[in-house]
């Protein structure tokens, strides 16, 4: 009985999400003791504000990966949406609200473009979004001629970047709403159920009478919409819209999703895991830059990136390593 | 003492000399589950020894012990009279133990000769490939087993049985002394089976020991010298199939009794005589891409319409047209008198057409998902109004089917992959019964399913028909077609060439019609 218990505890520990929560707790404990001003309310809202855009992209990326797909275009789309928003508000003198609305709509359209290529033409998601990754960024650069930066937005809009409600910055609310939305979508609706089934076996799902192509399209469209929302947050926070906004964000988002335990092959994963992944990365990069020695050397960014990579590899390799050690102990090699 | 090769059919029942391979008191546990308990088993050179048992009886574990994939917890392994203390897959290969699995493990993009070469040529050398020699060797091996396969064809282009023949050629080429065959005929047609049987007999004649696993009892009678029955991880009995002068010493009923541990009274449930209105009517249905040509047939409520024919005769293809996977080019499909259009599986499901596919691991069940999720997959819209999942409702539906169909699983949350083949098939069936269909298409409903589960599935099919369902049953298992069908349609080359009355049809009549030149 006791061996059975210890076995189940061990398998629980090997569960990715549990491992990650442990890492998160360790991070927080370490930084509270070693990083300057880490635990202040100001810094906590700082972490939320800075992780919001990548966090949004990661949350939208999760269902895409759950279906066995990938969307490399979201970072570029963020840049394109930011520029489009700048064009509407500055060059066309639109009011903020309609411009924001149209930006989000265009983001959805861009996502639908990805989805159409992937489902109607049955092209591999990796190739399609690699194409639109260049296409969207190229468009943004063409519009701005690579140099133009839109500044001086409506003070009301820029205020959003600093806006708080009940002590939580606006970004926190948006991120929380997105987490709730994707959490419900993935875990409590037939759509999420279909994503998972498609991730495991698109053919098998088709044989169950589920409209596989329609269901596959949905996460890409949602990713487009979410990238546009992230573009607005980005513009409000940095008070400017540039063509290179969100460069490399798609990879950061994928890192958070995979770190959060979603299988890159599709099928398995949880939204709360993704949230934990986002938090682990955000806290790591914020905390490490506040450790006095790092601060002095001025290598916060480099170290954060290095540690994120190490964390990802370690988290992915840990269960495999434990299994390897166990089997090595059980069976002497011949 | 070994009989001279070629003096078949009198096989060596208990030959003198040391056995080729012996297992004594082998035990193997996985956690708390004891998969093998004191199993003893012996194989003589030049013997075909059948291994029989329901799914979950321990056959797979035993094979894995024999091929070195699993280490036994206790017991003794001997090969050619010498104890083998630590058998690994590599060691097993060196000793001359080969295994041919149900699903051939070949590289689809390489040619037959390349596949054979990869297995047989010494690894690790970077010297140039001698193509001529490679092709020569492949050709010789294939000729020896009577396979008409060009060594230069890509494996992708081969049928499943042809791939199995390539596997056998590899085993032969490696000079295997012991060949394990795990349900080699599961996907073969009659003629291909005969070819395979010939190969097995040749192997036996050349002194190779063959461990033969199959659910088809008639094969065991046709082929095996001895049979060992496993039940719940124990070896129940080892019996000779024939005595010295070739008379049978064993009956099917005895074997079934040993396997199941109980008497299986009637193998096929009795037919019901009353049919209702025509449920499915198809006229001149064709699909060029699917290879279905001008098929017309009718299935009435309460009727089991069996579809027989060789593999590739267009039976599965017809099912795929009716289910909308490859929609029809021309012809009409009527359901309850109304002409319907089936352009995709969703439309088929909406009209009340259910299809339990042949390949349950790829199409029937999504293995990593819980069985409860699998069972509600085809009724998402109806069962979860407003798209909200209702976990409690789903769980009770699953529990209901688990009980009703006698599915052996620890609960609705058990992943499909944790179940045995027969139970997976029942999950696949449950998914479609949950749709409350009008027409149920079953494609090889008992393929790779053990005897106990098989008769349970047969009873379920008959009960469903009695409730007024129209059943279209595709099967390559001739006794099953004869035992279950009210009418039997025989297909050939994409056409329905013959319809026989199920009660009076004979195996000969069905086979004759299936083989007759078009």
Structure overview:
The complex is a heterodimer of chains A (334) and B (518). Chain A has 334 residues and is mainly α. Chain A has a domain at 47-246 and 264-270. Chain A has 15 helices and two strands. Chain A has helices spanning 2-14, 16-34, 41-66, 74-91, 96-119, 125-144, 155-160, 170-188, 190-200, 202-206, 212-238, 249-259, 271-288, 292-297, 300-330, and strands at 164-165, 168-169. Chain A has a two-stranded antiparallel sheet. In chain A, a hairpin with a 2-residue loop joins strand 1 (164-165) and strand 2. In chain A, helix 3 packs across helix 9 (190-200) and helix 4 (74-91) crosses helix 11. The longest helix of chain A is centred in the C-terminal third of the chain and has 31 residues, at 300-330. Chain A is globular and about 70 Å long. With 518 residues, chain B is of the alpha/beta class. Chain B folds into four domains: 19-96 and 177-265, P-loop containing nucleotide triphosphate hydrolases (Rossmann fold, 3-Layer(aba) Sandwich); 108-174, no CATH class; 268-352 and 437-518, Rossmann fold; 367-436, no CATH class. Chain B is 33% helix and 24% strand. Chain B has helices spanning 59-66, 89-95, 112-120, 131-144, 160-173, 190-205, 217-223, 252-260, 315-322, 345-351, 360-364, 371-376, 380-383, 391-404, 421-433, 451-466, 478-484, 507-515, and strands at 21-30, 33-43, 48-52, 74-79, 82-83, 97-100, 178-182, 209-213, 226-231, 234-240, 278-287, 292-300, 304-309, 330-335, 338-340, 353-356, 439-443, 470-474, 487-492, 495-501. Chain B has a six-stranded mixed beta sheet, with helices on both faces. In chain B, strands 16-17-18-13-19-20 form a six-stranded mixed beta sheet, sandwiched between helices. Chain B has a four-stranded antiparallel beta sheet with strand order 2-1-4-5, with helices on one face. In chain B, helix 3 (112-120) runs parallel beside helix 5 (160-173). The longest helix of chain B is centred in the middle third of the chain and has 16 residues, at 190-205. Chain B starts with 20 loop residues before the first strand and ends with a helix. Classes of the chains: A mainly alpha (334), B alpha/beta (518).
């Amino acid at each position: 009985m006791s061996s059975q218990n210890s076995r189940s505890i061990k398998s629980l520990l090997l569960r990715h999400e549990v491992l990650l929560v442990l890492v998160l707790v360790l991070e927080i404990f370490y930084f509270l003791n070693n990083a300057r001003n880490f635990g202040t309310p100001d810094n906590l809202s700082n972490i939320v504000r800075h992780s919001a855009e990548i966090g949004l992209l990661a949350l939208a990326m999760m269902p895409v990966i759950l279906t066995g797909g990938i969307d490399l275009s979201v970072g570029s789309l963020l840049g394109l949406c930011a520029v489009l928003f700048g064009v509407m508000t500055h060059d066309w003198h639109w009011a903020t609200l309609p411009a924001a609305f149209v930006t989000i709509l265009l983001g959805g359209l861009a996502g639908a473009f990805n989805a159409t290529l992937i489902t109607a033409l049955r092209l591999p998601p990796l190739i399609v979004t690699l194409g639109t990754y260049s296409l969207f960024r190229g468009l943004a650069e063409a519009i701005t001629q690579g140099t133009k930066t839109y500044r001086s937005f409506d003070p009301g809009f820029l205020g959003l970047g600093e806006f708080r409600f009940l002590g939580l910055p606006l970004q926190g609310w948006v991120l929380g709403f997105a987490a709730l939305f994707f959490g419900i979508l993935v875990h409590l609706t037939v759509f999420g159920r279909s994503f998972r089934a498609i991730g495991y076996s698109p053919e098998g799902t088709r044989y169950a009478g589920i409209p596989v192509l329609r269901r596959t399209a949905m996460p890409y469209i949602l990713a487009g919409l979410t990238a546009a929302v992230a573009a607005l947050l980005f513009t409000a926070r940095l008070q400017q819209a540039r063509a290179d906004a969100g460069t490399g964000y798609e990879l950061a988002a994928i890192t958070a999703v995979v770190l959060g335990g979603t299988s890159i092959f599709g099928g398995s994963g949880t939204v709360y895991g993704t949230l934990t992944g986002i938090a682990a990365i955000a806290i790591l990069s914020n905390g490490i830059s506040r450790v006095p020695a790092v601060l002095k050397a001025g290598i916060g960014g480099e170290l954060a990136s290095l540690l994120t990579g190490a964390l990802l590899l370690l988290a992915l390799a840990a269960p495999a390593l434990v299994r390897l050690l166990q089997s090595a102990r059980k069976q002497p090699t011949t | 003492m070994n009989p001279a090769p070629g003096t078949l059919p009198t096989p060596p029942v208990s030959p003198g000399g040391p056995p080729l391979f012996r297992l004594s008191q082998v035990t193997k546990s996985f956690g708390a589950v004891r998969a093998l308990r004191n199993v003893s088993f012996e194989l003589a050179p030049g013997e075909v020894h059948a291994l029989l048992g329901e799914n979950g009886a321990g056959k797979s574990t035993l094979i894995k012990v024999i091929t070195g994939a699993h280490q036994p917890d206790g017991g003794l392994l001997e090969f050619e009279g010498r104890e083998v203390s630590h058998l690994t897959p590599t060691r097993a290969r060196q000793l001359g133990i080969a295994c041919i699995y149900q699903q051939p493990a070949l590289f689809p993009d390489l040619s037959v000769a390349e596949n054979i070469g990869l297995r047989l040529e010494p690894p690790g050398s970077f010297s140039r490939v001698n193509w001529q020699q490679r092709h020569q060797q492949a050709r010789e091996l294939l000729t020896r087993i009577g396979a008409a396969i060009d060594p230069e064809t890509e494996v992708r282009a081969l049928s499943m049985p042809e791939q199995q023949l390539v596997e056998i050629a590899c085993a032969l080429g490696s000079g295997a002394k012991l060949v394990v065959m795990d349900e080699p005929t599961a996907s073969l047609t009659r003629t291909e089976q005969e070819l395979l049987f010939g190969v097995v007999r040749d192997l036996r004649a050349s002194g190779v020991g063959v461990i033969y696993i199959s659910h088809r009892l008639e094969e065991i009678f046709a082929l095996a010298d001895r049979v060992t029955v496993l039940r719940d991880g124990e070896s129940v009995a080892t019996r000779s199939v024939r005595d010295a002068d070739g008379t049978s010493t064993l009956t099917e009923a005895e074997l079934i009794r040993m396997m199941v541990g109980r008497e299986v009274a009637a193998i096929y449930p009795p037919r019901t005589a009353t049919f209702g209105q025509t449920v499915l009517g198809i006229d001149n249905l064709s699909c060029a891409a699917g290879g279905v040509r001008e098929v017309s047939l009718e299935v009435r409520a309460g009727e089991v319409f069996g579809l027989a024919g060789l593999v590739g005769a267009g039976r599965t293809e017809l099912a795929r047209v009716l289910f909308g996977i490859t929609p029809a080019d021309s012809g009409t499909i009527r359901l309850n008198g109304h002409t319907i259009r089936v352009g995709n599986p969703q439309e088929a499901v909406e009209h009340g057409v259910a299809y339990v596919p042949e390949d349950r691991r790829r199409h029937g069940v999504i293995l990593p998902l819980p069985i409860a999720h699998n069972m509600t997959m085809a009724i998402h819209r109806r069962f979860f109004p407003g798209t909200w999942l209702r976990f409690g409702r789903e769980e009770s539906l699953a529990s209901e089917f688990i009980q009703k169909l006698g599915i052996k699983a620890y609960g609705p949350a058990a992943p499909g992959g944790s179940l045995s083949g027969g139970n997976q098939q029942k999950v696949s069936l449950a998914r479609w019964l949950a749709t409350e269909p009008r027409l149920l298409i079953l494609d090889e409903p008992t393929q790779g399913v053990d005897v106990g589960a098989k008769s349970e599935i047969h009873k379920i099919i008959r009960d469903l028909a009695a409730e007024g369902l129209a059943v279209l049953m595709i099967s390559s298992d001739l006794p099953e077609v004869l035992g279950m069908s009210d009418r039997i349609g025989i297909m050939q080359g994409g056409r329905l060439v013959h319809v026989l009355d199920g009660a009076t049809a004979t195996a000969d009549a069905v086979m004759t019609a299936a083989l007759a030149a078009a």
